[in-house]
Write a structure and sequence with these properties.
This protein is an alpha/beta fold and 396 residues long. The protein is 38% helix and 21% strand.
Amino acid sequence: MSFSLYIHLPFCVQKCDYCDFFSKPHEGNVPDSYLDAVAKEANLYARVFEVDCWDTVYLGGGTPSLLTSEQITGLLSKLSMHISEKTKEITIEMNPESVTEEKILTAQMTGFTRLSLGIQSLNDKALKAVNRHCTSEKAKEALAIIKKCWRGQLNLDVIAGLPEQTDEEFISSLKQIIAYEPDHISMYTLTVEDGTPLYNKIKDGISGFDQDKADEQWLKGRRLLEENGYVQYEVSNFAKPGKESLHNMTYWTQGNYAGVGAGATGSFYGRTSVRWTNTTDIEEYIAFWSKFKGSFEHSSPKKTEMLDIKTREYEFLMMGFRTLRGINSEEYKKRFANVAPWNGNLALRLGTEDGIWHRFAEEKLTSEKTEADGSTTYALNSQGILLLNKFLVELM
C-alpha cells in the first residue's frame, strides 16, 4: 500500500517566538528511548497497513539535527526494513546552529536524499526580534558546510514580514540565500498565532507587525525567486524544475501518511478513513512504546478522528488547490462519485457556469487544461492563489 512516513522530533534548544508547533526546549542529547519508540511505532504501522516500503520519509521537528551522528545512523537502521530504492525521498530537517560537517556527511551516507534547513532570515535584527536561537553568521557557517559536503537536494526556509526587517533588508537576505543555489525554497509570510510569545509582544506594543506589509514583502520575494528560475508550485513553495518536495505532495494530494512521535498526526484514506494525533506528553509516549511487545493490549496514547466522505471531499479540494497543479476532474470523480449533490462532477462542484469558479475565471484568476484522456484540470493561477482562502470559504 502507498504510504509516506513522518517522524516528529519535538526537541528544540529554544522555541522561536512565532512558533506554535509542538516542541519542547531541550538541552543535552535526545533520549535513545524516544528514538526506539518512534521506530517501534513506524514499524507497527508498516505492518498494519501492509507497507513494503515507505514512499517518502520525513524527519522533522523540532530540531532533528540535535541528534548525534550515531543516533541519525541508528534511527535509519531501525527503519531500514521498510526503506529501499523504491523510496523516492528521505528528508531531514536541520537548524543552522546544530549543523556540523560530521552530521551532514552522516546524513548523506545513511541515505538521506534531501536536507531542509531553517534559515528564515540572514538579518540579525529580524532574528533577534523573534527570539531565534541563531545568528546570520552561524547560518552562513552552516550553509558553507552544506555547500562543501552535501550532495543531495537542498531546501531553505525563509519568512517574509518578520519584525525589524525592511523590504530592502528582506530582499538582500533572500538574494544571499539564492546565491547558495538551493534546489527549493519554502517562503512563508509570518503568521502571528494566538498565544505565542510574538502574539503577546505585538498585543503589548513591544513588537510591531503589519499583515498587509508582510504580504507585500512576500510578493516582492516571489518576484525575485521567479526571476532566478524558481517556479511556484504551491502557496508557499518554490523549486527548480523537477525539485519539488515529494513528501509534501503526499499531503496536498490526500495521500496516506503515518505520523509517528509525540504530537505527530497521520491519516489513512480508505473505505474507513481515520486521522490520529499522538499525545504531546513525551514521557507518556516513551513509556507506552517501551512496554510494547508487538501487539496492543491497550490503545496507544492518541486521539482518533473518523473522517466521513464529505470531510474528505472538502479537504481534497482545500489541499489540492494549494498547488498550482490543481485538481483533475477524473481523479475527483474516482474519489467522490458518491458525494451528493455533485456526484463526482467537478465542474458542477466548482460552479464553472455561475459559481465561484466562474467569477474567478472572469477575473482571470484561474487556469484550465484539457488532458489527453478528455478530463479537465482546474487550478488557481499565480494571482488566484493569493485569494485561496476566499475561494475555499465559498466552496464550504
